[in-house]
Design goal:
acyltransferase; Rossmann fold; 90 residues; single chain
């Protein structure tokens, strides 16, 4: 699998918020991968974007500028936090 090929790398998965029937299934698969593999880290966009309709375009899928900024800030902060935690514990 792809995760097996990158077992020495940190892999960051960003879950989704989309008004589609597959949303919960995809998010559950990502959460399971993060639990199963210690090098896989889940970034919880689903929770972070809750209630922020201004983040999304009219279709509820694509991001407006505010949503793009919030998502990129979230990814950056989670990776930085993980790196700081990993560095301080080694």
């Amino acid at each position: 699998t792809l995760l097996a090929r990158f077992k020495k790398a940190n892999v960051y998965l960003v879950n989704v918020r989309v008004p589609r029937e597959y949303e919960s299934h995809v998010n559950a698969l990502m959460a399971e991968a993060a639990k199963k593999h210690k090098n896989v880290h889940l970034i919880d966009w689903y929770s972070a974007s809750e209630g922020h309709t201004n983040y999304f375009a009219y279709d509820g899928i694509h991001l407006e500028y505010e949503g793009s900024k919030a998502l990129s800030d979230l990814i950056q902060s989670r990776i930085k936090k993980h790196h700081e935690t990993a560095t301080s514990s080694s």
